Amino acid sequence: MTIKRTSMLGLENEMFVITPEGKLVNGANDILETLTGKLAKYVKPELSKGMIELTAEAYPSIRECAVEFTENLADLVEASEKVGYRLLPLGDHPTRFFPSLQRSTWYNAIEQVIGTLGAKSEGKISGFHYHFTLPEGIIGKKTSMIKSVERSEARQIFLQQYNFMVAADPAALVFAQSSPIWNGVHFGKDCRVIVYRDMRVQHAGQTLTGIHYYLPEFGALPNYEFTLQDLRVMAEQKKTSYLKILEQKDFPTNEIASVPTLKFMWGPLRVNKIGTMEYRGPDMNFPVYLFSLSSLFKYALEAIEKNEYRVRPSDIGISEPFVLEGNKIYVPPHSTLKYLERQSITRGLDSPELYKYAKALFDLVCKISGKGKSRNFKKLKEMLDTKKTLSDEILEMVKKNGYSLDEEIPEDMLSHIALYYADKLSKEAPKMPKFFSKFKD
């Protein structure tokens, strides 16, 4: 028997602050100081002074969420331009400039754990975070911890949804990818994920090593989970490991130790103390990409709950990913996901295996969604039909301007890319609420 509830979705979106010449600038605080009223509620500082975060109110309706978010986005773009800046909605800023870091105990601790270069690198990558409300009873209201629930339909639903999001990651990454250049070098189609996760990639005689290459428990794609107890213990182990690293560096831990355990699940998928499952995998991108992908997630997760689908990692999922047989959705083993993750970030839709995987996810969600809802996925279908993502569009721009992807790209070209997409956001932002008012719920 399915449980009766209203599922909600919300978003967090990070964007870069740039000059009218396209250069990354430490201007976030200049913008934040001017904000008042409603906008001040939804705009927050981030790790670096070159980045700003815009959140969205949680809604059961994708259309309402998208309309309100884009109304706030249009206001934030206008407010930023009054200060003399632009906002850039890409997964990284491609130039070689590293912004300054914000200061707080939490941010200082992050710098201790991943190093100053790691923290500066994280301050130059920008992500999209998708929130989906957990079934009631997963998080203890007083403890902000995952509860130990032995027999519960809510427990069963959540574990299926969690494992579905783990399996969806390689495809979700490719649909949102917008960061094909890091520090002037084309390392892959999704440099932001390379920089953040446990990755190492070589190109053009250079090597890019991820922040969490030596700390995979914090930044790697998590494995599937089959019990709440294992998930609970995993979260506790992350916090313990984090505090040990700080102690080894003689960093005061009293304040950090008081932070709720789930805060330390900062990888691609986390259970949030506020009662949401938070998927943190994809690049930041333009709203049409983000809300198309959000629709895909929401309809899939709701269908899993409504139809009591069971997500099953299996050898079947290697050759037939996301195949639905009866009430079972077969997905690949975690080892296959890691291979597909690398294909996604390096080759994108040029990889036949990754293309097949993304198409299989798309086809499944179209099949299990309610009638007419798949029209929200038009942008995703367009990418599959053309085998072109925003990263591919950026790379084509570089080549059209006469530069090789096997050599370092000049700084003026990198600034041109940033300004082009910031100007595009500025022109499109006022029209976005009307566009999303036509989205299907």
Structure description:
The protein is an alpha+beta fold. The strands form three sheets. Strands 1, 2, 3, 4, 5, 8 and 9 form a seven-stranded antiparallel beta sheet that branches. Strand 6 (200-203) and strand 7 form a beta hairpin. It has one domain: 2-Layer Sandwich (Creatine Kinase, Chain A, domain 2). Helices cover 47% and strands 12% of the residues. It starts with 8 loop residues before the first strand and ends in a 5-residue tail after the last helix.
Short description:
With 441 residues, this protein is of the alpha+beta class. The protein is 47% helix and 12% strand. The strands form three sheets. Strands 1, 2, 3, 4, 5, 8 and 9 form a seven-stranded antiparallel sheet that branches. Strands 10-12-11 form a three-stranded mixed sheet. A two-stranded antiparallel ribbon has the order 6-7.
